[in-house]
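Title: Comparing notes on inverse folding

I've been comparing how different people in this forum approach sequence design from structure. To keep things fair, I'm posting one structure and asking everyone to reply with a full sequence. Here's the target:
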């Protein structure tokens, strides 16, 4: 391949790297070992994977380094050229790090990454894509060759930094439980958290809310539709009527989550049989449009009989439901933030949640008390609508500082 043929990719990379803003970095930026031979950054659409990668290239190499290049496989250049030819060219011209985005646009993308990992000594490949379903479906053959990093949506802590309100370090859960009042007082001394928390619940989980300019809910629904109408058929091979059932399933869950679902009734309402229902539920969960929680620590979760079903995050709730139930929003936020921070969340016999098999939490409004969990060891009440807690009563918003 002649140098001038690939110059379009090099120029595009240099423009993007030079132009990416560096004032806000996602939490995962410090958690990735970028020196690994092969790595994947995956996560739901709109969580900032591309920006994360470009920021690293800018910080570690800069534009025009001749050592690192970023390119996306949906670029028009690939209409007439093969991805493997680009890899071959960059490797033979001394590039040591390739950052490949929108990798799922390559029909046999897993084979492409496998080839890059096995046959190009000294070449480091980091890749990503906007289809979490396609990336998840193709990673079995790559499990021994790569490390996968999962990027979640923004925490409330990140949202405050992203909005330029204030920067705070993350808080470990155990430290939060022991010292929540002091931590909350320090945060509240710098900003009024409750109005900002309400905004975060509506539109703060996805960084693209800034670009949406008042149309965030519509843009988020477009993201959901892309998952259901494009990614789902491509990965699961389902037909348009089945896609419509998946859309209906998501809306049924959105109106009733969180719930202890009667799966047989759900399948009857969708006019689908059990196996197809489980297939759709599994796909929706992998896409992080909803989450299923089991009944206790050490138990294997089965989508056939989950203890509770939640939408993936509170922004989805507000986009899909006109007036979501406040209690449902509170529980969804709590489960989402704890799981994103790497904690195991279950649904116990008493209380709303058990975390890491150790702590029990009851979630409620400002007046919520210990009545339902008064005899449960290591139990805590989590109150919405309050700035500060005391004792074992903790403000809900503070659980948005875990990552």
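Reply #1:
Here's my take.
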């Amino acid at each position: 391949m002649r140098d001038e043929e690939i110059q379009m990719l090099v120029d595009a990379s240099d423009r993007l790297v030079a132009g990416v803003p560096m004032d806000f970095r996602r939490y995962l930026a410090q958690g990735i070992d970028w020196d690994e031979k092969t790595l994947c950054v995956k996560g739901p659409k709109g969580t900032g994977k591309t920006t994360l990668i470009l920021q690293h290239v800018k910080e570690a190499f800069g534009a025009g380094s001749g050592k690192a290049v970023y390119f996306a496989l949906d670029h028009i250049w690939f209409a007439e050229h093969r991805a493997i030819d680009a890899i071959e060219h960059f490797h033979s011209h001394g590039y040591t790090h390739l950052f490949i985005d929108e990798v799922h646009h390559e029909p046999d993308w897993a084979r492409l990454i496998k080839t890059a990992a096995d046959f190009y000594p000294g070449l480091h490949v980091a890749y990503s894509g906007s289809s979490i379903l396609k990336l998840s479906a193709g990673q079995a053959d790559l499990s021994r060759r790569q490390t996968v990093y999962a990027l979640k949506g923004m925490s409330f802590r990140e949202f405050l930094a992203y909005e330029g309100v204030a920067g705070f370090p993350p808080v470990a859960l155990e430290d939060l439980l022991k010292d929540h009042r002091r931590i909350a007082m320090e945060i509240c001394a710098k900003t009024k958290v409750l109005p900002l928390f309400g905004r975060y619940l509506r539109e703060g989980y996805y960084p693209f809310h800034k670009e949406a300019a008042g149309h965030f809910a519509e843009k988020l629904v477009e993201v959901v539709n892309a998952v259901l109408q494009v990614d789902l058929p491509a990965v699961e091979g389902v037909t348009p009527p089945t896609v419509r059932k998946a859309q209906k399933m998501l809306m049924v869950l959105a109106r009733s989550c969180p719930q202890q679902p009667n799966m047989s009734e759900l399948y009857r309402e969708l006019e689908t049989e059990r196996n197809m229902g489980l297939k759709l539920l599994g796909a929706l969960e992998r896409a992080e449009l909803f989450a299923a929680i089991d009944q206790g620590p050490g138990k294997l979760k089965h989508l056939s009989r989950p203890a509770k079903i939640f939408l993936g995050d509170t922004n989805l709730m507000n986009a899909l439901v006109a007036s979501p139930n406040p209690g449902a929003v509170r529980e969804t936020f709590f489960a989402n933030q704890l799981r994103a921070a790497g904690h195991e969340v279950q649904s116990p016999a008493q209380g709303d949640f058990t975390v890491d098999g150790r702590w029990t939490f009851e979630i409620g409004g400002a007046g919520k008390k210990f009545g339902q969990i008064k005899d449960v060891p290591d139990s805590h009440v989590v109150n919405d609508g309050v700035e500060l807690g005391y004792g074992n009563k903790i403000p809900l918003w503070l659980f948005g500082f875990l990552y």
